[in-house]
Hints:
By secondary structure, the chain is of the alpha/beta class. About 40% of the residues lie in helices and about 10% in strands. The strands form two sheets. It has an eight-stranded mixed beta sheet, with helices on both faces. A two-stranded parallel sheet has the order 3-10.
Amino acid sequence: MKKYLLAFLLIALCLPVMAKRKGENPVVVVMVDGLRWQDVFMGADSALLNNKKFVSNIKLNNEKFWRATPEERRAALLPFVWSHVAEHGILYGNRAKGSRMNVANGMHFSYPGYNETLTGYPDDARVHSNDAFPNPNVTVFEAANGDARYNNSVYCFGSWDRFHEIFNMQRSGIPVNAGWDASKNLGKTQAEELYDLIGQEIPHLWPTVRYDAFTYRYALECLKTAHPQLTFVGFGEPDDFAHEGRYGSYLESAQRFDLFLKGLWDYCQSDPFYRDKTTFIVTVDHGRGSEKWEHHGNKLPGSDETWFMAFGNGVKAKGEVSGGAQIYNKQVAFTIAKLLDLDFKNTEGKTEKAIPLK
Ligand SMILES: [Zn+2]
């Protein structure tokens, strides 16, 4: 009897140690709306860069983005990705090297793409428009917020105002700062007060999508003041500039995304709460038409082609993946769940394999 009691005590003592403690592995998820794998892995496309229809100042944009080789071009476009991430992380989706990632949903546009990526459940039956309906599926963010270890430590920031519904703000209770929202911080920092004012004072090119700098700045302030365990940062400019056929502006937005990614990472590495403990997951909601780059959807082939990168805690420095198994956006939710040690199931009660980070 005594032997059993001892074994029981030992298990009881070990249990709290086995479960992940608060602050052990913060995760930052960054998504970039409609940024093509072609530009991520090969840099600027000469056919688009030299087309007057898509680029107003061809000379200037060539100086900025054109280089002799794809390796030089992508490094000019995304310098942080092709130095830090390529050196310390893992990148999937370069189809020229046989690494394939796709969405599993049949829509190939934003809400279905975010839904699939964040809930692990492509839902063509219910999520087949970008309309403002509350997501019937539960995101891994909502699941984390419902877990005692992460409750009130989950924050979402997005340029597109549809993130209020995608994260089902009302049901999930997650603070979602998206579109042209002002800061929702109760004790606003001076910086947040300034961003709020500037957000009101500048022209809004798109009524439902704010400029990515605001999303970045609000997210950065939140990392500093609230130390979230799980943060979502959704950039939107590339998709909107692409739909307008403005390839130069689209590339500039891609370059700013790289700068913001570096800013978020550098901040995390400067703060003992995050330093050397944090994992970054970066991906996209859909591809773009290979014939018609401006747009995307299931009538435009190529629109289901996506990419994925990760770096930081728990990620091996593998660089660009060549070949390997086909992966899907629906696996991203389970990759996040694994990092958080969260028992997450999708709407059908199923799980998918996490994307290998090692
Ligand atoms: Zn779009």
